[in-house]
Amino acid sequence: MPYREEDPPFEDNGLNNWCEELWKNDKNRLTPDQDYELDLQGRTRFSYDGPDMAADPLFASVSREALARPTYKAFVALLDNYETATGVAEEVTPKELRENWEFINACYKTDCMRLCYQYLKFKKIINKSPEEFKQELYDMWFKMYRRSRETRKFDSSGFEHVFVGETRGDKEVIGFHNWIQFYLQEKAKNVDYKGFMASDRNPHLLTVQFSWKGEVKPKGGIFIGVSPEFELALYTVCYMLGEHSYKITLGGEEVIIKCHQTAGKIGTCYPQLPRWQGRRK
C-alpha cells in the first residue's frame, strides 16, 4: 500500500539505532553557542501573510572556520547552480557537473557516508561496490526531472528542492530545508526570518517561517548546525527504505523524517518535530 500523508510515522529499532550511530559520528556538526548563535525572537503561526515576529535574522553568527571545512565548502559551491522557479529548465554546465562530483567525493570520505553505505548493504537494499553506489547516489540527488506539471522541461532535482529551495507560483517557497543555505541567504538579504513555530530540547532542530526573495515558506522543518554529509546520509537511507514518515531519535530526542518521491526520484526529505506533522512541502 502506498504511503499516505495521514499515516502514523513508521518506527523501526534497527533504523533508530543506525540514526543514533550516525548522530554520534557527525564529526563536522557545529556546536551551539560556540560555532553558531541563534536569535529565535518571537513565536509565529502558520500563515502566508501572518505576523512577522522577528525583526532580526535567525542567525546571529556562524563560524567562518566551520564553513571552510571540506564538505561545507563543497556544499556552498553548489548553491548558486539553480534556477529558483519551478517550470524553468535547469542547465547543468561542465563546471556545475564538476562541483556536484566534488561534493559527493568530499562526503564519501566521511564516516557519515561510510555508515550510509554499510547500512544499506546490510539491509540488502543495495548490492553494489562503494564506487558503484557513489554513481547511484549522484543520480539520486542530482539527476534532473520534471516537478512542474505545466512543463516538459527538466526543472528540478532532489538536491535543489531539499537543500537549495524552489518557488512555485507567485507566493510559495517549497523545499528549502538546509540551514547553511538559510544562513547565506539571510546574509545576502534574500531571506526574511519571521519567527519560529516550534523548538525543542534538541538545539539542532527548528520549525520556522520565512520569506525568500519575497515569497513565503509558511512552515518548514530545518536541522541547525548539522553537517552536509549527515543530512545526505540520513535522507538517502530514509528515502531508499521507501516513501514514508519515519519516527527516529537523534541524541535521544524524537524527530520525524518525511520522504516523498517525485518522478521516481527524491521529491523531498525534511525533518519535523513530532507535534508538527503536516502536509507535504
TrEMBL record:
Q: What protein name is recorded for this chain?
A: Uridylate-specific endoribonuclease
Indicate the segments forming the EndoU domain, all copies: 11-275
Homology family: Belongs to the ENDOU family.
Listed A to Z, the keywords are: Endonuclease, Hydrolase, Lyase, Manganese, Metal-binding, Nuclease, RNA-binding
Give its E.C. classification number. 4.6.1.-
Q: Which organism is it from?
A: Clytia hemisphaerica
Family matches, as SUPFAM superfamilies: EndoU-like
Cofactor(s) needed by this chain: Mn(2+)
Q: What does the record note on quaternary structure?
A: Monomer.
Top-rank EC class of the record's enzyme? lyase
Q: What is the lineage of its organism?
A: Eukaryota, Metazoa, Cnidaria, Hydrozoa, Hydroidolina
Q: Which domain of life is it from?
A: Eukaryota
Report the GO molecular function annotations: hydrolase activity; lyase activity; metal ion binding; RNA binding; RNA endonuclease activity
PANTHER family, per this entry? PLACENTAL PROTEIN 11-RELATED (PTHR12439), URIDYLATE-SPECIFIC ENDORIBONUCLEASE (PTHR12439:SF11)
Give the catalysed reaction(s), semicolon-separated: ribonucleotidyl-uridine-RNA = a 5'-end dephospho-uridine-RNA + a 3'-end 2',3'-cyclophospho-ribonucleotide-RNA
